[in-house]
Design brief:
The complex is a heterodimer of chains A (711) and B (73). Chain A has 711 residues and is α/β, with parallel strands linked by helices. Helix content of chain A is 61%, strand content 8%. Chain A has two domains: 206 residues, Rossmann fold (3-Layer(aba) Sandwich), CATH 3.40.50; 359 residues, no CATH class. Chain A is built from 27 helices and 15 strands. Chain B has a two-stranded antiparallel ribbon. The relative contact order of chain B is 0.14. Classes of the chains: A alpha/beta (711), B mainly alpha (73).
Chain lengths: 711, 73
């Protein structure tokens, strides 16, 4: 067993790659247990490094069989050879341009119909292939009966059933890997017989008895598609490509037929005639309104479906479970959008806004801090440091007074922000544990495509409602730079973080007339922010060059949230948040104290006042905007404090809430933006955000003036 | 740990290794990045991890005790 805790470095990964020994490539879709199999084979020894020329990380390890050390590479999850994102491109590069001695394709025993098309594609590679049917225990639990021998015959490659997490089948897999490596490309000749080597190229293994129609293999093990037109086109390209590429001819022919952009790179120089013929064949498909790419994939899927229907028992769907019913309810746009609005109303408005930011904050801020803590601190300070001038006065102001560490930093952090954030995290963890978020991604995919994103952007956007800084980091999960820039911009502009959102709801609840139990000011705020989000996204998608990649993901089952999981996640997030914000809030209070001591604070407030005045807000609001520079939630807490004093009417509260929501991202978010996107993008985003915030604020003021304020 | 987004098991040791490229540096943050979907999950606080370890240990101890009793019979 190798040590598990070695720190990966580039030099280590280079040394790893340079080691002798056969290379085994682990490929397969996401979530089929590749990592578990990797661990079972290598004993958890890993080196993580970027795949050459990409930012995608691959995991490498090694294991010993007999006297030989095998190198194992775990590739990013992929469903096929035609890449959708950069991670899938890595897998294809490893297969096409790397030189693996053996490919192990891991599939989920429960979903063979979706998995086998890729197995068929891989069988074209001309590389020794083993198919591992993993999670066989879960398939058995579902009473699925798989005919592994028949699959072995059908694919013409060794097939091993495993349950990697339990170690089941791993020893057999090792034995098969050793056999295949030592004896070359192997296929099953007949059920129950030992593995044996394929002989001459003319020995078509599936032309013998037991080979299912409508497919057959060439002598080198590659697959011909028994679709008259496709098969003819494929074989014509094979005739042209085979003299140029021996082993990989079937793969090159298929990719050329599919119009893959990297396929020409597989051919040697001077192959223009082959490329022209491939182009001609594709055009002939196009003339009949067909896409050879789609036709090939459809053919693979038809073959897989036919095999599964005749060889897997127990696949008939049983009666719908509650989970299935809820799933359909939340992903169907006609029911999913009302459900989403209901979830937002009950969770964000009712639970976090009205209860958290209203009831709980009222108790903590007014009853605990304003009534007991702050007067007690001021009383103690007055007794210890009497006098209205000099160091005693300023020391008192640092700790108490109106802007000190206790009334500002501690009260904002514990009395206002923490209870809101705690309830938000509780609500968030319930949704997270129920499996709702991936369905939300599916639901909003179409809308997000209009703003240059896709469903995957739900991850950073949803996380942005918790903390925009963290969400800006998470934009790295997105596939293109264009998407990352658009999402970063939208997070900075129109996604309020949990504390900011909660405080703003508390400020807006009860302002203006109500509508269906919701305050009109809140409805107006939500509508304005949503419209700004969509319009800004649509504009950004036109300004930032590039295309939106497609989105797909495997959905986990809907499940009843587990109490212990929800509480642990809520506690973990609260703990992190509290320890992050408390020092910043205290530091901000300290800066304000220094600013007041030196007069800089008043100078800055004075500088902002004319702009705030344009929005129709009193000078006191300038302080709130200044707080917002430190942190969004700090600014929101300042607004909460200000509205408590009753100097703003309903319309002014709405203008301030809208402008502050869209206003400058906090310092931490700016720093992360700079690290992730660079100076130029960060500068553009800040200018866009500030100008949009004040422009929208002015527009709201204009509309309110026209209609005579909020009713 | 189960990923809160894609619902799949995360190997905490390997997810930690994947954080090496994080611009926040090598300091341990409170999040665990899912290697499959990229979602960042909160780590289980050490307090709860200790409770879980203690619980597992107790259960193993009870099982061993009952096994010994069974063997002696």
């Amino acid at each position: 067993m190798q040590p598990a805790a070695e720190q990966p470095t580039n030099s280590q990964s280079e040394r790893e790659a340079a080691l002798d020994g056969p290379e085994v490539l682990l490929v397969g879709p996401p979530n089929v247990g590749k990592s578990a199999l990797f661990n079972a084979l290598t004993g958890s020894y890993v080196v993580v490094s970027n795949y050459p020329g990409t930012t995608i990380e691959v995991t490498r390890g090694r294991f010993e069989l007999g006297d030989e050390t095998y190198r194992l590479t775990d590739t990013p999850g992929t469903y096929g050879l035609l890449p959708v994102g950069e991670d899938e491109r890595v897998t294809r590069l490893a297969l096409m341009q790397g030189s693996p001695d053996l490919v192990v394709h891991v599939v989920d025993a429960k979903s063979l119909e979706r998995m086998l098309p890729f197995s068929l594609q891989l069988s074209q590679l001309g590389l020794p292939l083993i198919v591992v049917v993993n999670m066989i225990d879960e398939a058995e639990d579902l009473a699925l009966e798989l005919d592994i021998d028949a699959l072995r015959l059908w694919l013409g490659v060794p097939v091993v059933a495993t349950a990697a997490t339990k170690g089941r089948g791993v020893e057999e897999l090792k034995r098969v890997i050793k056999d295949v490596h030592e004896r070359g490309r192997l296929v099953e000749r007949e059920p129950g017989h030992a593995l044996s080597r394929v002989g001459s190229k003319d020995e078509g293994i599936c032309e013998r008895s037991g080979c299912p129609e409508p497919m057959r293999y060439f002598g080198d093990g590659s697959l011909a598609l028994n679709d008259p037109k496709l098969g003819q086109a494929f074989e014509e390209l094979m005739q042209l490509v085979r003299p140029l590429l021996s082993e990989r001819a079937p793969l090159a022919a298929t990719l050329l037929l599919q119009g893959d952009e990297d396929a020409p790179k597989m051919l040697p120089g001077g192959s223009e005639s082959v490329l022209e013929r491939a182009s001609g064949l594709r055009e002939s498909f196009a003339e009949e309104g067909e896409d050879p790419d789609v036709a090939v994939m459809r053919r693979y899927h038809d073959l897989a479906r036919a095999w599964v229907s005749s060889h897997v028992k127990g696949t008939k769907e049983t009666a719908d479970s509650l989970s299935d019913k809820v799933h359909r309810l939340v992903v169907n746009p006609w029911t999913g959008i009302p459900v989403l609005l209901g979830v937002l109303y009950l969770g964000l408005y009712g639970f976090v806004g009205v209860f958290g930011a209203g009831t709980v904050v009222d108790f903590l801020e007014e009853d605990v801090f304003q009534r007991f803590v702050n007067p007690w601190v001021d009383g103690r300070l007055d007794a210890l440091l009497p006098g209205d001038v000099g160091w005693r006065f300023w020391t008192r102001e640092l700790i108490g007074g109106d802007y000190g560490l206790v009334p500002l930093g501690l009260t904002y952090a514990i009395g206002i922000v923490l209870p809101i954030v705690a309830l938000f995290f509780l609500f968030f963890s319930v949704l997270e544990d129920s499996g709702y978020f991936p369905r939300l991604a599916l639901l909003v995919d179409r809308v997000f495509k209009r703003i240059g994103l896709n469903g995957r952007a739900v991850i950073p956007i949803v996380l942005g409602f918790a903390c925009d800084t963290m969400a800006t980091l998470v934009t790295r999960v997105q596939e293109s730079r264009r998407e990352r820039i658009i999402t970063t911009f939208l997070l900075a502009l129109a996604v309020p973080c949990s504390a900011q959102y909660g405080v703003i709801v508390a400020v807006l609840v009860g302002r203006g007339a109500g509508m269906g139990g919701i305050s009109l000011a809140f409805l107006a705020w939500a509508l304005i922010v949503a419209v700004v989000f969509l319009v800004a996204g649509a504009v950004a998608s036109r300004l930032v060059p590039g295309e939106s990649p497609s989105f797909y993901m495997e959905l986990p089952p809907m499940r009843m949230p587990r109490f212990s999981h929800v509480m642990i996640k809520t506690f973990a997030r609260m703990k992190w948040y509290f320890f992050e914000i408390l020092p910043i809030f205290l530091f901000a209070s300290l800066l304000i104290w220094v600013g007041r001591l030196t007069g800089i604070f008043d100078l800055l407030v004075g500088a902002i006042a004319p702009i705030v005045g344009l929005l129709g807000l009193p000078d006191a609001t300038s302080e709130v905007f200044l707080y917002g520079f430190f942190r969004r939630d700090f600014g929101a807490a300042g607004l909460f404090d200000l509205t408590g004093s009753g100097i703003l009417d309903a319309g002014q509260v709405l203008i301030a809430a809208v402008t502050l929501t869209l206003f400058m991202p906090c310092v931490a978010q700016v720093l992360i933006m700079y690290r992730e996107r660079g100076l130029r993008v960060t500068a553009i985003v800040i200018v866009m955000v500030i100008s949009t915030a004040f422009s929208v604020g002015l527009m709201v003021r204009g509309v309110l003036s026209l209609i005579g304020g909020l009713p | 740990m189960i990923c809160g987004f894609c619902g799949k098991e995360i190997d905490e040791a390997r997810a930690g290794a994947a954080c090496q490229k994080c611009p926040l540096g090598k300091s341990q943050c409170h999040l665990l990045k899912c290697p499959r979907c990229g979602y960042e999950n909160p780590r289980t606080p050490s307090f709860f991890r200790r409770i879980a370890a203690w619980k597992n240990k107790s259960e193993r101890g009870l099982q061993e005790e009952s096994h010994e009793e069974y063997s002696s019979q």
